[in-house]
Design brief:
The protein is an all-alpha fold and 114 residues long. It is built from five helices and no strands. The chain has a single domain, classed as Ribosomal protein L20, C-terminal domain (c-terminal domain of poly(a) binding protein), CATH 1.10.1900.20. α1 runs parallel beside α2. The longest helix is centred in the middle third of the chain and has 39 residues. The protein is rod-shaped.
Amino acid sequence: MPRSVNHVASRARRKRVLELAKGFFGRKKNVWTVAKNAVEKGLVYAYRDRKAKKRDFRALWIQRINAGARLHGMSYSELMGKLKKAGIALNRKVLADLAMNHPQAFEAVIKKLK
């Protein structure tokens, strides 16, 4: 009996990978073995950097809050401690937005703490 090979599934699998490789440079976009490795590596980077993005944004928010707090004679850690003690539940993303784009509102929050 002849060997049975599921060409439909294997072709679909290759097609899916080569579509993901669209836009890559050189042989990475059209040679199966090279494209497969490039796509796998790209997906690994995508997974890793979805996690790193959260860390990066949190660090950016903290820097912005610290800069805004220091304009009013307070450090970041003092500000966060006083916010917690006062029971003001503003997350870092909102505080950073206030510090950058709405300085009057940020100043009002700080006056509430003093």
